Automatic annotation (TrEMBL), chain A:
Gene Ontology MF terms: metal ion binding
Keywords for this protein: Signal
UniProt source species: Polaribacter haliotis
Region forming the signal peptide: 1-21
Matches recorded under InterPro entries: HMA_dom, HMA_dom_sf
Domain HMA: 34-92
Keyword Ribosomal protein: no
Keyword Transport: no
Protein name: Cation transporter
From TrEMBL, chain B:
Domain spans labelled TonB-dependent receptor plug: 122-222
Cellular compartment(s): Cell outer membrane
Membrane topology: Multi-pass membrane protein
Alphabetically ordered keywords of this record: Cell outer membrane, Membrane, Receptor, Signal, TonB box, Transmembrane, Transmembrane beta strand, Transport
Family: Belongs to the TonB-dependent receptor family.
Major localization class: membrane
Positions of the TonB-dependent receptor-like beta-barrel domain: 271-708
Gene Ontology CC terms, in alphabetical order: cell outer membrane
Name of the protein this chain belongs to: TonB-dependent receptor
Organism field: Polaribacter haliotis
Signal sequence bounds: 1-19
Length: 135, 751
C-alpha cells in the first residue's frame, strides 16, 4: 500500500514539476515580482524606483521604505529579473535575496548615493529609524 | 511613487491599492534593534474594536484590515502602549519602548492644511478639511475666505450672495465640479455655491489656469473640484450647530452606516434658517435676506477592494427660499405690487448620480471609470415687479480609461463624454418680456497624455474634440508643464482654450434687482442671439520652497493672462440699462500674484499674498477696466495651534486680513446728482477671526467674527427711497453690507 502511495505521489510530484516548468517557459506580459532592496529613506525610494522603471520592460515599480519590499510589474518578454537587479545595484543599492544572501552593489556605485542614504552605515540607519517612529 | 498610482486612480477611486485585506507587521524591541529580533506575544488591535492579533515567535503579526480602521494599538507587558496611525496596507515595523525609559518627545510631522505640491504638473493645490474648518461657516461659497488664490465678493446688496473669482474672472469662467462632475453652472450659477454645505466638503482641489480636458471644455481661468465626505471615511455620526448674532442658524448632521462588508450608506442633512429682520444701515431694506434651506443627501458607497470595484450612488434634494426687500414687505399681500418692494427666490433642485470605477487588480496602473449625473433645477423668483423663472435639466456622463504606455512614466487617460442641457427661462423685466428655451447637447472624445521623467520634468497635454448642437464642432487643447531646475524650486507653465455658452440671465441675476432695462444685441447667434464665449488662458508660475532658521516656507510667483476671442460683454455703464453684446475688440484679464508661506514657529503659520489684477474690456463706449474689480489686493492669514494633547484637546486660532484697493465704479453720471457715485470706491480693510477649542476627538466649539472692524458700505442701494423709480439700483456693491458678525458653534462626532 505504502508503495502505491509513494509511486502515486511521485507521479503527482513529477506532474506538478512538469506543469511548473511549462509555466516558466511561458513568459508573462504582466508578471508581478517582489524582492527586497536595501535602502532607508524617501530619497532611496525615488532612486530605486527610478532605476527599476528605467529598465526596459518594467511597467510599474514601488518600493516600500519600511519593509524594503520592492513590488514590480514587468514584461518578461522584454526583460528579466537579473537585468533589473543589475540596474538597481548600478545606482548603489543592495538586493537582499535571503537572510544572509545579498547581491552587493559595487563600492563605486554605493559611494554615489547621497550621504544621508548610506544604508550600510548602521548609525545612519538608526537615525532614520527614529524618524520612522515619529511618523 | 505612490503618487503615480494615486493619480492614475485619482479620478474616481483613490481608496484602492493592492487588493488585500490583511495588514502585516512586525513588533520589535527598541532596546535591541540591531538583530531585528521581534517580540513574540505582543498584542495588536484596532482602536475601539475587538479585532486583534498576537505577534508570533519572530514578532510578526497579521491582522484583518478595513479602510475605516485608522489606529492600531500595540501593547506588551512592561512596554509602553503605542497607537499607530495606519493609512495603507504597507507592512509595519514598529519598535516598542520599555515603560521605564524616559518619556520620549514625539514630533508628528503635520500635514499642512493647504498644500502646494512640488510634484504635480499643474499649478494645483489641495485645501483639506482642516483649512475648511478655519472659517466655520457654512457653505462652499464661504470656504475660500482663508485662501489667497480665490477672491470672494458680494454680487448685490440684497441677496447676500457671495461670488468667487480667480485670476480676475468671476465664477462662470471657472469650472466648478463636485467629485469631477460639473456642478455650479447653468441655472445654478448665481447661488449654486451656497447649495453645498461646508461640512459636506472633504477637500477642495484648486487648479489655476486651463484645467484638464477630462472634465470638459468649459473651464477658462481655472478649476475647483470639491470632494464630498464619503460614507466609508466620514465619522459614524457628526453634528455641527452654528448660530450667529445676525440671526443665522445652521444645523448639519451626518449619519454613516455600514450595511454590509462592501456597502456603506451615508445620510447628510443640512438646514439653515434666518428669520430675523435686520436693517443696520437704515435704508428701510433688509441687509440680509430671510432664508430657509433644507438640503438632504444620501450616498451609497460600494467597495470591493479584492476585485477592484468601487461605486457611488447619490441622491440629493434641495429646497431653498429667500425673501428680501423692504422691511415691511409681506409677500402674501405685496407680491408683485407697488405696496412695498420685495423679492422672493425659491429654488428646488434634485440631483442623482452614479459612479463606477474599476482598477485592474493585477495592474494597479490601469483602471476605468464611468460617471452619470442628472440634475433638475427650478428657480421661481420675482424682484419687485420683475419676474425671472428658470428651469434647467442637465445630464452629464463620462467614460474614462486610464493606463500606461510602456511604463508608469508615460500615462494616458482617454474617454468619451456626453452632455445634455435643457433650459426654459421666463424673463419679465420692465418692458422686456420673453420666454427663452434652448437645448444644448454635445458628444466629445478626449485623450490626455502625461509624461514624467521621475526627476525634474513632467508635462500633461490633452486634446478633446466635441460636437455640440449650438457651439458647433471644435477642439480644445490644454497643456501643463513642470520643470524643476534645482532643489525645491519648480517652474510651471500652462496654456489652454475654453469655450462656453453664456447664460446671460442666470449669471447676471443681480441686475433684475434694479430699474435697469435689458438690451440684447441679436447678432443671430445660437444663444440668446449671441455667440459662444471663447478664451485662451496662458500662465507661468514659479515656486521655491525653503528652510530658514529651521522653519519651512515657500514663495510662489504666478502670472496668468486670459485673452477672449469672443466674450458676451455685460455692459452696465449706463445706469438705466444693462446690455449684452458680442465682444468687438479686446478683452483681457491679467493677474499677478506673489504668495509667501512661512512657519513662524511650531504650529504658528503665516500666509500672505499680494495680488494685482488688470481686467479690461472693449465696451461700446471704449476700453474700460472691469467695474468693481480692485486692481490691488493684499491678503494675510495667521494661524496658531497649540500642541495636540493626548486626548485630542487643542486650541486653534485663526485670523485673516484682507486689504482691498480702490475699485472703478460703473458710470452713474447720467443719474440725478443725489444718485451719482464717485468714479472710484475707497480702499478698505477686512478682518475675520476664529477661535476653536477642541476638547477631545469627539467635541469642539468655535467662536468667530467676520468683518471685525465693522466695514460697511454706506449706501449700497441707490434710490432706496424710491424702489419703483427709474434710479433704483442694488448692483453697485463694492464692500460688505453687513457689519460685524459674531458667530459660535459646536461640532460633535462619533467615529
Amino acid at each position: 500500500m505504502k508503495k502505491i502511495v509513494f509511486i502515486f505521489s511521485l507521479f503527482l510530484l513529477g506532474f506538478s514539476t512538469q506543469a511548473q516548468t511549462q509555466k516558466e517557459v511561458k513568459k508573462k506580459r504582466n508578471a508581478k515580482v517582489t524582492f527586497t532592496v536595501d535602502g532607508i529613506c524617501g530619497m532611496c525610494k525615488k532612486r530605486i524606483e527610478t532605476a527599476a522603471l528605467k529598465t526596459k520592460g518594467v511597467k510599474f515599480a514601488i518600493w516600500d521604505v519600511k519593509s524594503h519590499q520592492m513590488n514590480l510589474i514587468m514584461d518578461e518578454r522584454k526583460t528579466d529579473l537579473s537585468t533589473i537587479h543589475k540596474n538597481i545595484m548600478a545606482v548603489g543599492h543592495d538586493i537582499i535575496l535571503d537572510e544572509d544572501k545579498k547581491l552587493m552593489a559595487s563600492d563605486k556605485a554605493y559611494e554615489s548615493v547621497h550621504p544621508c542614504c548610506k544604508y550600510r552605515d548602521s548609525k545612519i540607519v538608526e537615525d532614520h529609524n527614529g524618524e520612522l517612529k515619529k511618523q | 511613487m505612490k503618487k503615480y498610482i494615486f493619480s492614475s486612480c485619482l479620478l474616481l477611486f483613490p481608496i484602492l491599492f493592492f487588493a488585500q485585506s490583511n495588514l502585516k507587521g512586525m513588533i520589535m524591541d527598541k532596546q535591541n534593534p540591531e538583530n531585528n529580533s521581534g517580540i513574540s506575544g505582543a498584542t495588536v488591535n484596532w482602536l475601539d474594536t475587538s479585532i486583534g492579533a498576537v505577534s508570533n515567535e519572530k514578532g510578526w503579526f497579521t491582522i484583518p484590515y478595513k479602510p475605516e480602521y485608522k489606529k492600531l494599538v500595540v501593547s506588551y507587558i512592561g512596554y509602553k502602549t503605542d497607537t499607530i496611525t495606519v493609512t495603507s496596507l504597507k507592512t509595519i515595523r514598529h519598535f516598542i519602548t520599555p515603560e521605564s525609559e524616559l518619556e520620549e518627545i514625539t514630533v508628528k510631522s503635520k500635514k499642512r492644511a493647504t498644500q502646494r505640491s512640488l510634484f504635480a504638473t499643474a499649478n494645483m493645490f489641495t485645501v483639506n478639511n482642516d483649512e475648511l474648518l478655519k472659517a466655520a461657516c457654512c457653505n462652499l461659497a464661504e470656504s475660500f475666505e482663508t485662501n489667497p488664490s480665490i477672491d470672494v465678493s458680494f454680487s448685490d446688496a440684497l441677496t447676500g450672495t457671495r461670488q468667487i473669482q480667480m485670476l480676475g474672472l468671476k465664477s462662470p469662467y471657472l469650472l466648478i465640479t463636485q467629485e469631477n462632475v460639473p456642478s455650479v453652472r447653468g441655472a445654478a450659477q448665481a447661488f449654486g455655491l451656497t447649495f453645498t454645505p461646508g461640512t459636506w466638503v472633504e477637500s477642495i482641489q484648486i487648479t489655476k489656469g486651463a484645467g484638464s480636458v477630462v472634465n470638459g471644455y468649459e473651464s477658462i481661468s481655472g478649476q475647483i473640484n470639491a470632494e464630498l465626505v464619503k460614507p466609508f471615511s466620514d465619522n459614524k455620526f457628526f453634528l455641527n450647530a452654528y448660530s450667529s448674532l445676525n440671526g443665522r442658524l445652521e444645523l448639519n448632521t451626518h449619519f454613516n452606516e455600514k450595511i454590509s462588508d462592501k456597502w456603506q450608506s451615508g445620510l447628510y442633512i443640512h438646514g439653515n434658517y434666518r428669520g430675523e429682520k435686520f436693517d443696520n444701515n437704515n435704508d428701510n431694506f433688509l441687509d440680509a435676506p430671510l432664508a430657509k434651506q433644507i438640503n438632504v443627501m444620501n450616498r451609497w458607497q460600494y467597495t470591493d477592494a479584492q476585485n477592484g470595484w468601487v461605486s457611488f450612488i447619490n441622491f440629493r434634494y434641495l429646497k431653498d427660499e429667500k425673501q428680501t426687500g423692504e422691511l415691511n414687505f409681506n409677500p402674501e399681500t405685496d407680491k408683485r405690487t407697488t405696496n412695498a418692494w420685495g423679492s422672493e427666490i425659491d429654488t428646488k433642485r434634485f440631483e442623482t448620480s452614479a459612479k463606477l470605477g474599476y482598477v485592474f487588480p493585477e495592474l494597479p496602473f490601469q483602471s476605468f471609470g464611468f460617471q452619470l449625473a442628472y440634475s433638475n433645477h427650478q428657480q421661481d423668483s420675482y424682484f419687485g415687479l420683475n419676474v425671472y423663472d428658470i428651469q434647467h435639466e442637465s445630464v452629464y456622463s463620462n467614460l474614462l480609461f486610464n493606463s500606461i504606455i510602456g511604463d508608469t512614466r508615460n500615462k494616458f487617460k482617454t474617454g468619451i463624454s456626453f452632455t445634455y442641457d435643457n433650459y426654459d427661462e421666463l424673463v419679465e423685466v420692465g418692458t422686456f418680456d420673453e420666454n427663452f428655451k434652448r437645448k444644448e447637447q454635445s458628444v466629445g472624445a478626449f485623450f490626455e497624455y502625461a509624461f514624467d521623467n521621475l526627476d525634474d520634468f513632467s508635462f500633461t497635454t490633452g486634446l478633446r474634440v466635441d460636437a455640440h448642437n449650438l457651439l458647433g464642432n471644435f477642439i480644445t487643447p490644454r497643456l501643463h508643464l513642470r520643470y524643476a531646475p534645482w532643489e525645491n524650486g519648480v517652474f510651471r507653465a500652462s496654456a489652454g482654450r475654453g469655450k462656453r455658452s453664456a447664460n446671460i440671465f442666470a449669471e447676471n441675476q443681480q441686475f433684475f434687482v434694479s430699474s435697469r432695462q435689458i438690451n440684447i444685441d441679436n447678432v443671430g447667434g445660437n444663444i440668446y442671439g449671441l455667440n459662444p464665449e471663447i478664451a485662451w488662458n496662458y500662465g507661468v508660475s514659479y515656486m521655491q520652497k525653503f528652510n530658514i532658521f529651521d522653519k519651512k516656507g515657500d514663495l510662489t510667483f504666478d502670472f496668468y493672462r486670459t485673452d477672449f476671442s469672443n466674450q458676451v460683454v455685460v455692459d452696465w455703464e449706463n445706469p438705466q440699462g444693462i446690455s449684452f453684446y458680442d465682444l468687438d475688440g479686446k478683452s483681457v484679464a491679467n493677474s499677478f500674484q506673489v504668495e509667501l508661506y512661512y512657519q513662524l514657529a511650531e504650529g504658528f503659520n503665516l500666509r500672505t499674498a499680494y495680488k494685482y489684477f488688470d481686467v479690461s474690456t472693449d465696451y461700446k463706449s471704449g476700453n474700460l477696466q472691469k467695474p468693481i474689480q480692485p486692481k490691488n489686493r493684499f491678503f494675510a492669514n495667521l494661524s496658531y495651534e497649540t500642541i495636540l494633547q493626548e486626548n485630542g484637546a487643542q486650541w486653534k486660532f485663526d485670523a485673516t486680513f484682507n486689504s482691498i484697493g480702490k475699485q472703478r465704479l460703473p458710470d452713474t453720471r447720467s443719474n440725478p446728482s443725489q444718485y451719482q457715485l464717485a468714479e472710484f470706491s475707497n480702499p478698505y480693510q477686512l478682518l475675520n477671526s476664529q477661535v476653536t477649542r477642541v476638547f477631545s476627538e469627539k467635541f469642539e466649539v468655535y467662536l468667530g467674527a467676520e468683518n471685525l472692524t465693522n466695514v460697511q458700505q454706506k449706501n449700497p442701494i441707490l434710490a432706496s427711497d424710491n424702489p419703483f423709480g427709474a434710479n433704483f439700483d442694488t448692483t453697485i456693491v463694492y464692500s460688505p453690507i453687513f457689519g460685524r458678525a459674531i458667530y459660535a458653534g459646536l461640532r460633535f462626532k462619533i467615529k
